[in-house]
Input
Amino acid sequence: MRLRCAVLDDFQGAAVEAADWGAVADDVEVAFFDRHFDGEDALAEALTGFDIIVTLRERVAFPGTLLARLPRLRLLVASGMRNSVIDYPAAEAHGVTVCGTASSAAPPVELTWALLLALARGIVEESNSLRTGGRWQRTVGADLYGRRLGLLGLGKIGGRVAGIGLAFGMRVSAWSQNLSAERAGEVGVELAASKEELLAQSDFVSVHLALGDRTRGLLGAPELALLKPTAYLVNTSRAAIVDQDALLAALHEGRFAGAGVDVFDLEPLPADHPMRTAPRLLATPHLGYVSRANLATYYGEAVENIRAYLAGSPVRRLP
Output
C-alpha cells in the first residue's frame, strides 16, 4: 500500500507544478489542500490518515498535542531550515522525522521594496483612482533619495534591503540588540545608537528581525509614537514584533504616514479582522516568500526529502 502525503496551504495550486511529484508516485499518494485548516481539531481530523505532511513555512503549528493525534505521521517536511512552531522533542518522541528545505532571501527583500515604493508614491491609491475615473493625480510622492532608511535587523535579508536603499541614494542606519559596528560597516550603513534614535530619525523604517522573546512586542505604542508624522513603517518579518493593537491605533489616529504589512497575528486573515479596513495601510497576504523560484525550491526539495526518507537516509533534518 502506498503512503499518503498531504501538502498544506497550497492556496494558489502552485505546488503541483512546482515539483516533479511523479518521482515518488510509485510509493506515495499526494493530496494537495488549497484551504487552511483552522484549529487543532480540524487539522487532526483532516490529517489523521497521512504518513507524510509538507507544510509551508510557519503557517501551521505542530505542537505535541497535535502530533499525538496523528498516529500515522512519520515524516514532516517544512519549507526553510528554521521553524519555530514545530515541537521537535515531541516529534522525536512520536517517531516523526522532521526535514527542511533551502529558502531564498531574495523574494522577501523584493517584496519589502515593493511595499516601500508603493507607499512612497501612492501607487495603489493612484492606480485605483485612474481605473475608476477618479481625480487625475491625488497624491504627492515621498522622495527616497537623500532620506533616511532605518532597519531593525541587519541579517541576511536586512543587509540586502540596506544595499538597495544605498543604491537609491538613501542614508541607511540599522539597529538590533546584537548588531555590532563591524557588521554595520561591512554593509556600509550607520549603526544607530539606540532603537529610539533610529525610529525618531528615520523617514522609512523596515523590520527584519527574527521573532523571539526579546523581539516580541519590540515596537509598541511608545515606540510608534517616536515615528515622524511623515514616516512609513514596513513589516515583512513577523507580526508579533509590532504590537498589533498599537499599530491599529496609530494608523487610525494618523500618527505617521502609513504602513506596509505582509504579516498578521492570524493567518489567513479573518474576513472581519480590523487590519482589512485600517486606514493608511498597504497590506499583502504574506507574500514575502511566495515566488516561482522559491516555491520550486521548497517543493522540489520536499520531493527529494521524501525520496531520501523512503531510501532510509533522511536529508536536511531539523532542528
Observations:
- The two ends are 30 Å apart (CA to CA).
- The chain has two domains: 3-104+291-310, 106-283.
- The CA atoms of residues 122 and 280 lie 10 Å apart.
- The first helix runs from residue 15 to 18.
